[in-house]
Design brief:
With 79 residues, the protein is mainly α. Helix content is 82%, strand content 0%. The protein contains two helices and no strands. Helix 1 packs across helix 2. The radius of gyration is 18 Å and the shape is elongated.
Length: 79
């Protein structure tokens, strides 16, 4: 492997780890503050929960597309 390939793989691994931690901490925050005392329409905790839900939804959608594309590529190459 060349040095450039090693650097690219290291960066890809670092990005995956960051995304994983983002999802884990978002889910932890949502579960910890699920039954908070809501302050009404401008509740900062509800706003943060909405951001966490959007992050988890976006990443899970992206992972689904990537996995489906990868499986289609494997099936296409076997044909």
């Amino acid at each position: 492997m060349t040095k450039k390939t090693t650097i690219k793989k290291s960066i890809a691994l670092l990005i995956c780890i960051c995304l994983l931690f983002g999802v884990i901490f978002s889910m932890g925050y949502m579960s910890a503050h699920r039954h908070h005392k809501c302050e009404g329409t401008h509740c900062p905790i509800c706003a943060q929960i909405a951001v966490c839900e959007k992050l988890v939804q976006t990443i899970s959608s992206a992972v689904t597309v990537i996995v489906c594309s990868f499986l289609m590529l494997i099936i296409w190459k076997k044909s």
